[in-house]
Amino acid sequence: MTCPSCGEPVGAKDRFCEGCGASLLVTRTPKDGPVAAPGGGPCVGCGGGNLGADGFCEDCGRAQPGGRDRMESDLKLVAGISDKGRRRARNEDSMAFGVVSGETPAVVAVVCDGVATSDRADNASQLAVDEAADVLLDAAVEGKDAEGATRAAVARAVEVVAGLADPSVPGTAPSCTFVSAVVTPTEVTVGWVGDSRVYWLAAADAPTPPRRLTVDDTVAAELVAEGMSEEDAMAMHQAHALSKWIGADAGDIEPRTLTITPEGPGLVLLCSDGLWNYLPDPQVLVDALPGDDPPAEVDLLPAASELTRIALDFGGHDNITTVLVPFPPNPSEPPEPSGGQP
Q: Which residue among 66, 135, 199, 230 is the one 20 to 30 A from 29 at the CA level?
């Protein structure tokens, strides 16, 4: 056995690598995102493998995104894609996720969407997902309460994102949304700030049918909660404007959390509004999944790719991030990191 972080030999009962200190119970996406060079996989347009040295597909001619434009990672028990979309100049979404093995197996995932009107939105979202994922993974290793860990993860994200702000340039503080999920063999715990979402996807006749687990922190959603009709709320000026976010100018932030105990198998979907703006209904999301019997039997990365493709085909007006986690996670199949840097 070798350490997945540094390659040094480790013992079968070791919990930490003596060489680099990394936890041997955790496999996660690399810090700063699973960034890949152009042409590192099949064509994102036609799926072919005939890619030229110039970064273009020789079959369909589409330029292959590199760096943050298209980030993909598959840890077998969780997989995700973050795509720049067709209209934005850069990808300001970020994702981080990991798998905890051992006596208390768990899957942790975090998605943050950088607020486009803020400064260094991509830095804010990436720093937030990386730091929050570390908090959640450490808590999962120690078997701590998932909702408490989620609040601690958001507090850490607030701290590090606020530290990016330049006090000499008011009104442009780096900012992002936040959504997370902790998936164990018995429970799904989610937490959120802003309008990125988590969905529970299952068959329509399942004991726990498909549903959205989060409630957007937007002007429209708050007006609906106060009794206004959804139609009138959506017609209000700045209906989609965030009422809560993570950033130095966000004030005191307390995330909302929710824990469910599904009665059967399904999928947990974390996504930014670049996906749900086109596919907001949970049953439509289930119907869009590839395969003969989704979501009971689905390959995670191809499924994330298909949902992302649909958003791109609808116009891809925003960055698109799609992360899928099966419930219950199967700890008997150890994760094998794929995508991005080791």
A: 199
Domains located in the chain, CATH noted: 29-39+63-327 (3.60.40.10)
Q: Is 227 left (phi over 0), alpha (psi -120 to 50) or beta?
A: left
Q: Which one, of 147, 155, 280, lies nearest residue 215 by Cα?
A: 280
Q: How many CB atoms lie within 10 A of CB 142?
A: 10
pLDDT tens readout for residues 248-278: 999 899 999 999 999 999 999 999 999 999 9
Q: What angle do CA 333, 337, 340 make, to 5 degrees?
A: 160
Q: How far apart are CA 13 and CA 21, in angstroms?
A: 15
Vertex 221, ends 234 and 257: CA angle to 5°? 155
Q: Which positions ≥6 away from 144 have C-beta within 8 Å? A: none
Could you give the angle at the alpha carbon of 67 between the alpha carbons of 66 and 68, nearest 5°?
110
Tokens of 336: 């094998």
Higher pLDDT, 220 or 128: 128
What distance in Å separates the CA atoms of residue 31 and residue 73, rounded to the nearest whole number? 12
Which residues are CB-neighbours of 258 under 8 A, at least 6 positions away? 189, 190, 191, 213, 214
Strand-pairing partners, residue 73, are 80
Amino acid identity of 35? V
- SS3 track for 43-76: CCCCCCCCECCCCEECCCCCECCCECCEEEEECC
Lowest mean pLDDT among 6-10, 157-161, 162-166, 287-291: 6-10
> How would residue 15 be classed by pLDDT, with cut points 50, 70 and 90?
confident
Q: Which two tokens stand for residue 292?
A: 């003969």
Does residue 133 contact residue 256 with C-beta atoms inside 8 Å? no
Read off φ and ψ for residue 36, nearest 5 degrees.
Answer: -130, 155
